[in-house]
Amino acid sequence: MMIFRLLLSKLWLLVLPVVAFGNTVNNTNGAFCGWDPAWEDNYYPIVDQFSLVSPDFHAFLNCPDSPFCSITVDDQKSQNMAEWTTYYKGVFTEKELIDIIYKRPVGWFLDQEGFESYNDEIGDKLNKPENLFFKKYLALAKISQHASSDKSNGSGWYQGERDYYGGDAGKIDKRELLSKALELVATAPDDFMRNRAGFQAVKLSHYLQENEVAIRYFNTILKKSPTGNYMYYRAMEEMAGAAFNNNNQVLAAISYLDVYDQLPDRRYTAGVSLRFLNWDLLENSYDFKKLNDNNDVKSFFKAFHGRGNVLREMENISRENVNSPYLDVLAVRWLDQMQSEVFEHTSNYYYGDDEDSADSNTAALGFFAKDLLKNKNLKNRDLWTLILATTQLYNQENNKALATLENHKPAVGFKKHFKRLKAAISFMAIKSLDRQAINRSYETIASDVDLHIHKPTVAAFFNHISALYNEADNPIASILTSINYDSYTNNEKYDWAGVGATHGYSWEYDSKYHYLRDDYINNFDLFISRSNPTAFEKTILKRMKAAPKDYVHDLRGTYYMRKDLLEDAVIEFKQVKSPEVFWEKGLRTEIFSASIKEYMNVPFISMSNGFHEGYSAVLGENVLIEEEDLERENYKDNKIKLTEILIKLKQLAQTQPGKTADYYYMIGNAWYNMSHKGWFMNNSYYVGNNNRNELAGSSYGDDDSDESKIDDSFIMYQANDYFLKGLQAESGSRETKAAILFMLAKTNSCEDGRYDYDTNTYTFNICGQHKDYFNQLNNEYSDTKYYREVLKECSWFKNYVN
Asked: Could you tell me the pTM of the whole model?
C-alpha cells in the first residue's frame, strides 16, 4: 500500500515548518540529531502511543521524522466508502463500489469507444435507469478530480487541492464542469446525491476564483444529511478556501476547524490551511470567539503546529472538555517524547541512560496530570495515570512513578501498558551487575506474556543489561546479552521461545580479535564458570554457537600465542574439546617462508621464496585443501600444530647452531606473516585479508570513537627480534642473511612520498631503519642471488639503488 507521506510530497515546501513546530514539547536534541535518519531506532516505545488513542488521530502522534505519522490510503477513503456502501446497500456491494468509483476509467462513464471490456455485470447494473444519475455524477467527479485552481496554475497545493494526478489540469474546462455540476444539483434524487453534486459546484467555483458564488452555493445547496455528511464537510473545506480568498478570516477559521474536527482524512490539508490564517487577529475577534464551536480543535491546532504553548493549550482544552480526544492526543505525544529520552536506544544496541535534568515544562505537566486526575468528570483515568507516572520517571522520581502505577487498577486494555512501564522502571533501576536483581527482572518478563511478546520491552531490558556488562569490561557477555532492535518492526511480537537462540549482531563479536585482552577474557571466563548460574545467565550462554569453555580456551590460547608465550598457548589450545569449530586439521607451512612482494588476493605460496620446502622434515606436511569453495587464504591453520612448530624451531635454533639463522628466519617470517601486514593474519586476528582495513578502527567507522584499538604492534616487534637473531647468528648462508636483511627492511618499513605539481614528478624517499637495511643489503650482499631477485622484483629497492 502507498504510504500517506508520499502523498504529502507536493505539500512539502509548505508543510516543512511543521517539523519544528510539531515537536515543541521536546526540548532536547537527542532524538533529532546524528547520522541516523530513522528516529524510531533511537528509543524503545515501552508504552505504545498508537494504542492509546483512536486511529483517527494516529497521524498526529509523535513521529519526529515526518510532519505526520504515516497512515495508509485505505484509511483515507474509508469514511467516504462507508457512506457509499450504506447508501447503496442491497444494490451494490462494497467491492463493486470500489471497482466503480476507484478503478473504472472515465472513458467508460462517458460511453467512449475502447472501453467495452467494462460492459460487464456491474456495468449493466450501473446502466439501469435508477442508477444513471450515479453514473453521470461519477463521470463529472472523475474529470474534475484533475482540475486545479486558477490561482495555483496547477503547480501544487492550493487550499486543500492536491495536484498529484499531473498532466491534464490545464486542459480542463472548469466552467463547463460547473454547468454540469449545477445541472446535477437540480436533478439530484435526494440530499445525499445533491450534496455530492453541490461539492463539485462549490469546488469548481472556488477554483474559478468566484469566491462569493462558492460561499453562496455552499449555503444554498449543501445541508447535513442522515445518510452521511462526508461531502458536506468536503464542500465546507472548499468554501473555507473561498472565504480566505475574500479575507473573511473568521468564516475561514471556523470552517476549517469544523472540517479538521469532522474529517480525519482532511486534517492534514485543513491543518496546512489553518496555518496561513492571522491568529493574532482571530484571538482578538469577538465574532470568532462567539461563532467557534471547536475551541478544543483550535487549541490542539495551535499546540500541534507551534502556534501556542502546548501546556497552556492543554489547559484551555481541559476547561472546555476534560474528556476531549484532542487533549488525549497532546498528552500521548508528550508521553512518547518523554520516553524517547528515558528509553533511549543507541546505535550499538546498548541502552542509554540520559542523566539530564527534566525541564520545567515536563514538571508542570505532572502537576497538570495530578489536578486532572482529581476531576470527577475525567473518564480516561488510565491514560492520565500513565502520563503522571511517565513525568515522574522523566524527573527521575522512579519510586513515585512505581507507586503511581501500583496504586491504580487499570482497565483490561491498559493493563499491558502499566505492566510494561513498571517492568521498565524496575530494570532501569539496576545500575550495576547485581545478578539477583537482573534475574528477578528477567523472570518477571519471562513469566508474563504481555511483557515477553513486546519487542521494545524485551529489547530495552536485554540491551540495558548489555550496557552494564560493557561498562564492566566484559564486552563478550555484553554482546551475547544484546538484542537487535529496529522500531520499524516493533509491532511484530517478540518470539520469546527463541530468546536463548540469538543475540544482537556485532562486528566485534564476529571478528573476535577485539577481545584479545586478558581482562576481557578473564571477565568472560568468570561469567561462564559460575557454579550456580541464574536463569538469565543460562539464557545468555545458550546464545553461543560454540561451547563457552572452548571459546575461552581458543581465545586465551590465541592471546598467549600472539604474545609468544607458546607453551601457555599450547596448554589452552589442547583444552578445546571441539577444535573443529575453531580451526582445521592441517597447517599451511608456507607461513614460514617469505616473499619479496605479495598481493593479498593472490595465493602466498605462488609468491613466496619457497624456503619452507627445504625443511619439510621439520615443518611437516603442507596442507592440501580439497574443498573447492575454500580459498587458501581463509584456511584456519591448526593452532596446536602451528604453536608446537614455533616451539620446535626455537629449540632447534639452540641445538643446531649450523642452521640457527635459518630457524630464526622462519620464525621471523611466521610472525611477519601473522602480523597486520601479513597474508596469514587470520591465525592471530581471526579475520582474513578482505577485512584487514577494519583493523584500523572501530566497526562503526567513527574516528572519534572512545573504543580503544587493541595494541598489536608487538607482533611486528617479535618478527623483528627473530630476524635480528638470525642476522646476528654466527652461522647461516649469505643467501639467508640477504633474505633476512630484506625482511628487516619490510618489518621496519619507513617511506615518504610527495608529488611536485610544478614538474609533474613523484618523489619517493626511504627513511629510518628501512633505509639502513637497504644500505646494508646493497653494500654487503650485492653478490647474492637473493639480492638480484630483490633488485628485479622490488621497485622500491631498485629506485633506491639507482
From this structure: 0.78
